[in-house]
Specification:
By secondary structure, the protein is of the alpha+beta class. Helix content is 35%, strand content 31%. It is globular, with a radius of gyration of 18 Å. This is Alanine acetyltransferase.
Length: 193
């Protein structure tokens, strides 16, 4: 009996792993966003210094995440997806997302666009990819936190259908700024229903 259970359990999770790998797989390719050509790729360890550079540019010289945090996320590729956007070999934007079937949630962990390329549709495009992946995995929601002071990003998320769901007091490391919880319901039915 135990042997049959182990076999069933292994099969179940191998199928689940394959499903995630298929859906979260992205081939590096050219994309057009607002009539401009870019290159979309899965983030690699070699991208981390440039990702940190984008964070410094966006967050006034600070990096909310360090290289080891990004490296740890990139190692966990099975339920994570990190993407980068380049133009003329310059890293312009990135996004990271975790996909949790138990919570039926795709959580955007990090998104940033270099200041001189903001308002060109890159953030919108990257979030739309993660929402589509969440729907394809039948996850019920996409969630994220955003700084309470970052009203521009909050507006972008609301334009994409996210709603404010709460406030996390003192959430951010260093300055202890509050975070606004935002959630987008995907309309997908979770496979465990």
């Amino acid at each position: 009996m135990l042997k049959k259970f182990k076999h069933w359990y292994r099969q179940l999770f191998q199928v689940q792993e394959a499903k995630y790998q298929d859906i979260l797989d992205i081939k590096n390719h050219q994309v057009t966003i607002q009539d401009v050509d870019y290159f979309l790729a899965k983030a690699q360890f070699t991208d981390i210094p440039e990702m940190l550079g984008i964070e410094r540019a966006v967050y006034g010289g600070k990096t909310p995440w360090d290289s080891s945090a990004f490296a740890s996320e990139l190692k966990r590729g099975q339920d994570r997806l990190y993407l980068v956007v380049r133009r003329h070999d310059r890293l312009l934007a990135f996004i990271g997302c975790t996909f949790n079937e138990v919570k039926s949630d795709a959580h955007i962990t990090n998104i940033a666009v270099v200041p001189d390329f903001q308002s060109r549709g890159l953030g919108h495009y990257l979030i739309a990819i993660m929402v589509k992946k969440a729907r394809n995995l039948s996850l019920k929601q996409v969630s994220l936190e955003v700084r309470a002071s970052n009203t521009r990003a909050q507006q972008l998320y609301q334009d994409l259908g996210f709603e404010k769901k709460g406030l996390k007091k003192g959430y951010y490391f260093g300055d202890h700024e509050d975070a606004v919880d935002m959630v987008l319901m995907t309309g997908a039915e979770s496979s465990d229903d």
